[in-house]
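User: I want to check something. If I give you two sequences, will you return the structure for each one separately, not as a complex?

Assistant: Yes, each is folded on its own. Here is the first sequence with its structure:
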Amino acid sequence: MPVYMEISRLHRVVTIVARGAVDPEEIRAMAQRLAEAKVRNFAKIVEVAGARTEMTAEQVAKVAELLRGASSEKRGPVAFVVNPARVAFPQAFAQMTVGEGPISIFKSLREARSWLERIEYSPMPSSSGKKDHTPWSDPDREGVLFRGDRQRDVTVDQLAEYVS
């Protein structure tokens, strides 16, 4: 599963997970889809701890420009979850987008979620009465799987077949 992106409009959160060798074209396609979704001001978790990619500074700049687009909206916070030995892409992206919105790098998903909740969310009441209702539990979230030059929309139910 090279790159998977999920958008929760209910909670205004985008989650991106990358695994294995990720081609720069897959990153560009994901960035294009993200720009088209018009979610620039949503919080984002980019989990790339299990991924590796070779991108030039020019390619990173093109991704940043694509995500910037023509939108005048401020970018939402971005939390990168990384392998400490591979931080080149997140650091380059952070440097190229300084001043566009908060961005931070973490070693664990728990740290990233906690940071986003502190800066972006107050406790959300649950209409269903469940105590585990969080920005990470929207059953209507939209998912997209990127593999090479192919893209496939997936539902949360279909995701189980990709991660098992």
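And separately, the second sequence with its own structure:
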Amino acid sequence: MKIFNKTIEFQTQKLFDFIDITEKIVNILKEGQIKNGLINIQTFHTTTAIFVNENEPLLLEDIKDNLNRLAPTNLNYRHDDLTIRTVNLCDNECINGHSHCKAIYLPTNVVLNIIDSKIQLGQWQRIFFAELDRAKKRMVQIQAIGE
């Protein structure tokens, strides 16, 4: 059994920057030379997500609208009240309670089958990285396991 790991870094542009990373993942899988097994794609951030869906612009807008209804930016989040919050603080702390609340509705990783050196995706399925906060430098780790 082989195990192949790779971490990719990129800069997001804005809230709801939905980045189709499918081709990047396909190329990484080629590097790993795993014919049959599993591939895990995982974000390192609490205000981002990895999901599989259709890359259709109107659908992506619907997903954004849905997430905004679930966790609007204009609510008062205790996480954002820096007069009472005492943990996980850093310099230039951003006000992003809405981003964390949006993230709970989406996965931090996806695991997909590899058969005959190909990631098994349906006709319209694509792999997305979702920025749920603001423009930031982000990292995604890929691990493929198999033969």
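Because they were folded independently, the notes below concern the second chain alone. The helical segments are 22-32, 57-70, 97-103. DSSP finds three helices and eight strands in the chain.
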